[in-house]
Known about the structure:
alpha+beta, six-stranded mixed sheet, 16 helices
Amino acid sequence: MAVQKLYAGARLREMRGQFQLTQKDFAAKLGVSLPYLNQMENNHRPVSTTVVLALAREFGIDVTELSTGDSERMVSDLREALADPVFADAMPPLADLRLAASNAPALARAFIELHRAYRQTHERLASLDEALGREDTRLQPSPWEEVRDFFHYCDNYIDAVDRAAESFAQRAGPDIRAGTLRHLAASGVSVVFAETGRLRSYDAESRELRLSARTAPSTQLFQMLLQSALLDQDKLLEATLDLARFQSDAARSIAKLGLANYFAGAALMPYGAFLEAAESCRHDLEILATRFGASIEQVAHRLSTLQRPGAKGIPFFFVRVDQAGTITKRHSATRLQFARFGGACPLWNVHRAFETPGRFLRQLAETPDGVRYIILARNVSKPGGTWGAPVRRYAISLGCELRHASSLVYADDLDLGNTAAFEPIGISCRICERTNCHQRSVPPLERRLSIDANERGVLPYRIE
Length: 464
């Protein structure tokens, strides 16, 4: 297999600015000539091994930090945006999109944001909600979209919050539930378990934290840790939010709750101990759930966040869908990126998980770019705790590239060398290049169609 060259011009320019060095000084520290550095920063040359070693020696930078995955995310988002009918046949070559994502990431991100604003306005007009006539109409993302993209482009790893949670877990001791209760008590917070439908309710005046006695112990502990984050880590959370520069107060509030949730998960499953345990048991979700007192969904989500520079775990993707196929959570540290709009590919095993409650489903899959994955799926149910209370049903999926299969217990006994064992999956029908998919819902917007009234195959048209 050919070795992939590393082009990281934008990242090099960012590092140089971070250390406040001129090109001349930066080149001297890296042991290269000024023209050579200039060529690397403009992606005319790949980053050499000598430069990688110099970055590690002079600045303590891990080579994995040069390839954060942002380019792949942007290429996927650009392709989806450019597949919009408004661009007609204007889809640039894939090589051009990759060049834009790596050389001009700020411009690429601005284009994606511009398309989102266009799409939002278009949908408002289509639904006849008279958005253009309302005084509060603004071309900005919904708060949920803005927060989703924040975590997406942070690689779903927030270093300062993660390390603070790990320190909290160390202080709490081996029994983190007891340690958290002690911590809350020392902070003047009383914890009450009550027969209530609310998972968590905190009264700031009485400093009473009420938790639902109907929920699982893992959920109760998670909510205690979340409240601890809101009470004790407020300055850290606010500083992180300041750096994010959200466009609305609503987005900032949602993101703060998201960061508190992140803290809770990271304290329940502290980075170093969790990574070591995951590698030791070959990422067996059930063993990890028992070991850390967490749910299967919490473990799967945590595995997708193990992207600490210098101590990265396997790059997983994680997704959660509801019964309608709508993606409610998504993150990918792999080359596979989820569609920003719409649901997941119907050929993914995550949709079949609803049919087999309580069981793990395994799938070998291949995306149109030829990358192969091993994918795990399982349903998760969240009961209301009382008779007649609605049950929320989801399915989760966790996957990684096939090259990591030896580190997964779920890959045992699978025929990894059999090409026929890999199911063809895609990202979104709008941008999927497959011409013979029997589950295609809409035609690909990048291809021409041929329709013959006298013939009918699986699809009512042929893709040229």
